[in-house]
Amino acid sequence: MLLCFGSVKGSPGTTTLALAMAARWPHPGVPPVVVEVDAAGGDLGSRWDTYDEPGLASLASGSHAGPIGDGAWFTQHLRVGADVIVAPPSDAAAATVDELRARGPGVLRELAAVRPVFADLGRLDARSPALGYLDKADELLLVARPVPEELRHLRMRVPILSRRCPAVCLVLVGDGPYHPDDIADYLQIEVAATVPYDPLAADILAGRKRPRRWGQPGARREAGWTRRPLLAAARTLTLAYRPSEPTPDTTARRNATATRRNVTQAVRERLEVTS
Prior knowledge:
The protein is an alpha/beta fold.
């Protein structure tokens, strides 16, 4: 499964949502990996004070040599319980994303055959070098706040993105003056979830806050920080996605996405209760 994350305006928390969903992934098997493919520069390495490598640049180089398997050679593990392939900051990221422009979508599709891949594409404007990943994606989750200045930009951009990706859904962050159903009608796309604005959880996911107790792998009781509203909402959202065999063509990907949509209404209601 190749699930892409992006935004069209502002910084609504796209990276935070992708990381939260990876950290709270409930399904057995190989866990997801968050891949930063943002030409504006990666944030996770800076937030967690990690090295830039292994990361996206080594993935770009290593993909020349042959199959990349489960991507372990390029992956770092963050203490929140998520595997990530980090992008370097600023211009170094732009150069790496440009190097991967032609080959990268196929590489992530190959990786998605082994484990779920959450590709953080950053801001998707008309010139974004990450647009090619949408051609290989199973779904695009657009992250936005339910406020007029973001929704109007989305209305202009969604038709273009929908031509690249077989399924485009919206995740709303925080409260706003409009009901999710009205936003879905306005944008003519599905609102997959409404997640709460939770600054403390965002700080934990960014490495700025340290919980009193980190969860231990295999522990019977979950660490308290995982029950924060944002983390709980992210876990609920992940229940709508189940790892499956990759679907090689657009028609098959549409059918797979239709199956997921059967549970979307129930998931959204649970998220709204959580928030």
